[in-house]
Every structure is written in C-alpha cells, then in structure tokens.
Amino acid sequence: xxxxxxxxxxxxxxxxxxxxxxxxxxxxxxxxxxxxxxxxxxxxxxxxxxxxxxxxxxxxxxxxxxxxxxxxxxxxxxxxxxxxxxxxxxxxxxxxxxxxxxxxxxxxxxxxxxxxxxxxxxxxxxxxxxxxxxxxxxxxxxxxxxxxxxxxxxxxxxxxxxxxxxxxxxxxxxxxxxxxxxxxxxxxxxxxxxxxxxxxxxxxxxxxxxxxxxxxxxxxxxxxxxxxxxxxxxxxxxxxxxxxxxxxxxxxxxxxxxxxxxxxxxxxxxxxxxxxxxxxxxxxxxxxxxxxxxxxxxxxxxxxxxxxxxxxxxxxxxxxxxxxxxxxxxxxxxxxxxxxxxxxxxxxxxxxxxxxxxxxxxxxxxxxx
Length: 369
Known about the structure:
Creatine Amidinohydrolase, Chain A, domain 1
C-alpha cells in the first residue's frame, strides 16, 4: 500500500479556510504538522495558503526536512532568529492578510510575540481545522492502526504468560514495554497504566510498587506506537486470585455496558447516545457515581484525538472514524474495572479491531511457577 497523500490532505485543509474566515493558516501543533507534511521532528511550524506551503524550522532539522519533505519549501532559521521573526517574514512575503493560528496549540505568550512581530496581516483564531480532517482515517492510516493494535496484543500475551506474584506494577509495565519493542514497536503508545487492587480504582494511575499478588485484580491499560507514529489503546482486567461476588458483578456490568455500546456504533449515530447506553447500564446496576469519564475517544497520531463519546458530545459517527470504547467502574480504595477496545466505524456499522479476550472466564490468569 502506498503511503499517505500529504498534498491531498493540505488541499482539503485549504478548502476549509473560507468558512474559517482566513486566507492562510499557521499550523503549530506537532501532530498536525506531521499529518500534513510527514515531518517527524518538532519545533517546526507550517505556513499554508492556496499558493504557499512552507515549513519554518531551524538548522537542527535541515537534513531531516530534506529527506522527509522534499516537495515542500523550507525556511531555516539559526539561533539568532526567533521563530516569531521567521514567521513574520514568511507571512509578509506571502501577502496573506488573514492568517489563522491554532488556538489549541499556540500559547498566549507565543501569540503575543507573533502579534508584535507580524505587522502585515491580522492573526485570526481557529480551532480544530486539521483535527477535523484527522477524525476520518484513510486506508493507510487504518493499516498503521491495525499494526499498532497487533503489536499491543503481542505484548500483553507476553505479560500474561510470564506473570509472577512478586512482580510489582512497575515490573509489569517494563515487561510490557520491552515486549512491544521487541516485536517492532517504537515504544508504548502512552505510559501504560498498571494497577493492582486499589490502584486499579484510579483511572489514570501510575504503576508503582504494589505486587501483583496483593490483590486478585490487575488492570492494564496499554497501547503500542508504530514507526509511523500511529497508536493503539486497550484495557483489560485480569484475575490473579480468588475474586469476590462484588468483583464479578462489577466486571459483568462493565462488560455488558461495553458490548451494548459497541453494538450501537454506526454511521449517523450520535456519540452522546452511545455514551448514554453504557452510562445507563452502569447506573441501573447502582454504580452511576463510579463512572465519571467519557465512554471513549478518537486516536491515531495522538492517543486522544477529536471524536469524543460523552454526555456533552455533539458529534456523530462517520465511516473511517476509529474510537475507543472504555466504560469503567472505580470503587475508591477497593478496585476498578475498565474494558477497552478499538472500534472502526464502517460504511454499514462497525468493526472491533482488537481481539484480546474479554469475557469473564477469559480474565483468569495463573502465575508463572
């Protein structure tokens, strides 16, 4: 399969300028620059208009830009020229008058500096122009995401087959990261969450020193990153000892919410409606106050991208969107359960891209002797 068509991506973005009230756009978000150009470095902005495509960078990236972005004009500055000065010169030469900037990625200090330096044009705030393009993945992106999921699944298989009672949460994290790298990942898609017992009740816990044997519940939220920069995001709960009736009830409630929500995903379905399906199941079981976060989110070059399933979402599903579905119940001081899979919205429904077993009986794990 051929690589991404960056020219087409930029052309689609330019078409959105009119409705945004701009004649050009200054792209400063690192992942947005990568999506539009293929450049894998940082500290580099893209100036884009109908007639100009210019990457504004510094001398550290001269060779890298020449290798990765051969068809794009490059403006290289040295240490004596601040970014704002370089941008102002590019804007003036382009004759742009209404230059959009990304409010989600530009700091107030950067905006103030740019405003002081750019005298030939007006800076216009924009939000989500590139991110909306990134919501729907093309075939090449889907291939990369599938690979990221595959690497993550191979990694968790190593953890599951080598689990020992004296391993700490941090030990499990490092084993998982090393396994994914050994199979070809550049690294984890994000810092893996490994929680034993009470730690599992923290939705974004950091792996610590609790040993796996200190509770029968082990929660792992993990993903892999491919060389192309695309990521995966999964969560499973494993039972390493005798579980209580409450643990089983919570697990089965989360699993039911997870499955019913996925079943409702299709083009045209409202994201908040799907979130509501899972939320009602959890509430009806008596755990409403223990599920506070949204049901899921988009992902790709970033682990959290536009497309959000929450009670506040106004988005609807479109074919090509890829999202997580991750309901959870978190009982403070006791344990937490979250089950998360990666879902592709297809032309007539959805496809579950991840295949790690998730049924209650599949969650039991024996320690390595």
